[in-house]
Amino acid sequence: MIHGFHFILSAYGFWLPNDPRGSWSDTVREFSLRKFGPATKASTTRSVAGRSHDRQQRLAAKEALRYPPVIFTGQQALAIAQGFAEALSEHDYVVHALAILPDHTHLIMAFHARHVDEISAHLKAKATASLARQYLHPLESFAGKNGRKPTPWARNYWCPFIRSERHMRVAIRYVQANPVKAGLRPQRWSLVTPYDP
User: Fold this and answer.
1) In angstroms, rounded to a whole number, what is the distance separating the alpha carbons of residues 21 and 156?
2) What's the CA angle centered on 162, arms 156 and 168, to 5 degrees?
3) Within 13 Å, how many C-alpha atoms sit on residue 120's CB side?
4) Which of 82, 159, 152 is nearest to 119 (CA)?
5) Strands (E), the chain
6) Strand, coil or helix: what is 89?
7) How many Å apart are CA 150 and CA 111, to the nearest integer?
8) How many CB atoms lie within 10 A of CB 37?
9) Eight-state DSSP code of residue 182
10) 8 Å CB contact between 61 and 17
11) Cα distance between residue 138 and residue 133, in whole Å
C-alpha cells in the first residue's frame, strides 16, 4: 500500500543525467553533455550523493550546460512555496514536509490519485509561474525573442513511494533536517500539514 510520495525536484543543472554517482535518467538529451558519458541510471531509491566520484568531471559537465546552474535565493524560495501552495489548493494535495534548498526541493506528500508525473509537472509549473509573476525567475536574462524563459527546473524528478507509516515518519524527519544539514536555518512552511495517521 502506498502511503505517500517523496518528491525531489531539482533545479536546472543540479543533478545531471550522466552524473558519475548515478541519476534517474535514461538519456542524455543535451548534446554538450554527451562527451561526459551516457546516462547513469541509478538502481536504488537511497541517496547516492555521498558516493565517491570524479568531482572535476562533474563540475566540467556543469560548465558545458547551455545555461548556468540555477541556485535559488531565499526570496525565490518564498515564491516557490507560494506556487506550491497554489498547486495544493487546485488539487487538494497534502504536504507533510517541505524543504526548499538552493539547488533542489524535497516534498513529502500524502498519497494522491493523480499520477506522480502530473503532480511533479503541476508543482513545477506553479512554482515557475510564481517566480515569473514576482520578477524572480532565475533565468530571466535568457528569455528568447518571444519572451519565453527556460525552465529553472531539471526535466525529470525523483519520487520514491512511501509504503508505511514508519517510512512516512522517517521521510518527514529526513526532509525537516535537510536545510540544517545544508547549513541553513530550519524551515517552517504554512502549507505543511502535520502528519497524523
Assistant:
1) 17
2) 120
3) 20
4) 159
5) 4-10, 95-100, 104-110, 161-162
6) helix
7) 30
8) 15
9) T
10) no
11) 12
Phi (first) and psi of residue 151, to 5 degrees: -70, 140
3-state secondary structure (DSSP) of residue 62 = helix
pLDDT tens for the chain, 197 residues: list them.
899 999 999 999 886 666 676 666 767 677 676 676 666 666 666 665 666 766 676 666 667 678 999 999 999 999 999 999 999 999 999 999 999 999 999 999 999 999 999 999 999 999 999 999 999 999 999 998 898 999 999 988 889 999 999 999 999 999 999 999 999 999 999 999 999 98
Q: Tell me the residue type at 99.
A: A
Here the cell at position 84 is 506550491
Q: Which pTM does this prediction carry? A: 0.86
Q: Note the pLDDT of residue 48.
A: 59
SS (H, E, C) 63-79: HCCCCCCCCCCHHHHHH
List phi, psi (to 5°) of 103. Answer: -125, 0
Q: Quote the CA–CA distance of 184 and 197 in Å, as a whole number.
A: 29
Determine the 3-state secondary structure of 124 from DSSP: helix
The amino acid present at 43, given as its one-letter code, is S
Give me the phi and psi of 66, to 5 degrees please: -65, -35
